[in-house]
Amino acid sequence: MHAYLADWLSLIVRWFHVIAGVAWIGASFYFVWLDNHLREPPDWKKQKGIKGDLWAIHGGGIYEVAKYRLGPEEMPHKLHWFKWEAYSTLISGLALLFAVYYFGNPGYLIDSSKLALSTGGAIAIGMGTLAGVMLVYEALIRSPLSRNGLAFGAVLFAILVIVSWAMFQVFAGRGAFIHVGAVVGTIMVANVFLGIIPAQRALVGAIEKGVEPDAQVVLLAERAKLRSTHNNYLTLPVIFIMISNHYPMLYGHAHGWAVLAAIGFITAFARHFFNLRHQGITRPSILVVSAILTLALIWAMAPARPDPSQAENVARVDDEVVAILVETHCQACHADKPAHPAFQAPPAGIVLGTLEQLREHADQVYQATVATEYMPLGNTTGITREERDMLGAWLRQAE
Ligand code: HEC
Questions:
Q1: How far apart are CA 140 and CA 142, in angstroms?
Q2: Is the domain of 194 the same as that of 234?
Q3: 25, 82, 121, 368: which could form a disulfide with 117 (CB 3.0–4.6 Å)?
Q4: What domain range is 290 assigned to?
Q5: Does ligand 1 lie within 6 Å of residue 325's CB atom?
Q6: Residue 69 included in any domain
């Protein structure tokens, strides 16, 4: 019953988290698009302080958008702010981290062959990393480095690669991946909370007082611009990490941290194409390079093909041996009614009750158990490398 209700809780929080994230990133894409499609306004609008003009049709109505150089002469009664999308994405994301990883199934997060962590230890490392990286980022963006956008970008990327490597040293692959995602998400929300919103407040304050923004307000605005550029480049990687949760080939890889670094680079680089295009520069070579890098990554990560000359030397593996292996290492979870307390239904819908069912899932089982060592989850059953290879040999002879 506990596992059943926990599943519902995580489902509902996940649903909310995705909606909040869509609202946030959707609004952010929309405003980037708006900014890049503003045209020069007619004179009568310029005289009112409008610097950009845009017309759009959506949902059966025509919209007129005007961007002010600074602000209108008189502030409107209702000025809409975009911040709760970001905050609620972070809050629901943290709730999900606790529900799924810290208090849900420890197998996603704790790999005792790396570090035998207690729940408290895992929370301390996870939350400490989120807060620590965010503080480092905040210190950097207030430092002179923020004057050099490209150097800052390189330093930020290097920091995230180190975080990725570090997370893979302490957590199981899936938990490591999601923590890197959470670190990126936290930086992005902190950018809104600690930089962008305060800059907007300062600007509105100046307009309300009817004065030109002073040097302090201008500095805040410049940094806010850099922060929003970072958020813009981080959107594609962070979404990729969210969905990569479902692909053990990524985080189960022996060098999962490097896979993540490569994907982070490729997705952020691909974003660059769209940013340039919005500015009227079309540089397809960026997308071509991204595609080539992706293919290279797919090739580099491909599981080694078994050497056929070796296969003949391998002794045939008996059905009974495999039946016992699966019973010992898989069936506590992959059964119609799992005995494992964390599951009330077979995980990933995969039941491995009979050898026939094992054969039906041969490819997935090979990938999850032999090629990547993702299964058995957290290796709580203590399967050995020899047993994995035996299972692999049996799966191949069953082909
Ligand atoms: C402690 C519980 C547990 C044990 C033991 C376990 N699994 Fe799993 N298995 C899971 C969970 C949970 C998932 C879903 C993982 C996810 O969504 O990332 C899963 C997913 C899978 C998948 C699907 C992976 C994919 O491609 O998404 C396969 C295949 C699999 N397990 C095979 C096995 C085999 C084979 C064994 C035994 C050698 C095993 N599992 C032992 C919990 C377990």
A1: 5
A2: yes
A3: 121
A4: 78-301
A5: no
A6: no
